[in-house]
Amino acid sequence: MNESTDRTGDTHSAPDEGDPVLAGYRRSIDNIDAALIHILAERFRITQAVGEYKAKTSLPPADPGREQNQIARLRALAEEAQLDPEFSEKFLRFIIDEVIRHHEKARSR
């Protein structure tokens, strides 16, 4: 029997057991989640290099103008992709805040 544990720690049988359609959807979701992790890892490798460069050249860790432009650009892309632009902005803001934190850390070394 295929079991999983939910957020509360309770163990449940996997509801897709015996349901090939649901199992297929879940495999696709798992693949997309793995791709997202790899994409985020690459993005943070690049932004870490940017933070080190900014620290060496005495540039500020944050660039509010670029951040606003990126948020506007990605909100528009989200709308085109039929993704909630509020969600996309929150997601991007979370990433930007983490990048700035890394840049500040690089600057203090």
UniProtKB/TrEMBL annotation:
The organism of origin for this protein: Erythrobacter litoralis (strain HTCC2594)
PANTHER family: CHORISMATE MUTASE
GO biological process: chorismate metabolic process; salicylic acid biosynthetic process
Biased composition (Basic and acidic residues): 1-15
Nucleotide-binding recorded as keyword: no
Keywords: Isomerase
Residues covered by the Chorismate mutase domain: 16-107
GO molecular function: chorismate mutase activity
Protein known as: chorismate mutase
Superkingdom as given in the UniProt entry: Bacteria
Phylogenetic classification of the source organism: Bacteria, Pseudomonadati, Pseudomonadota, Alphaproteobacteria, Sphingomonadales
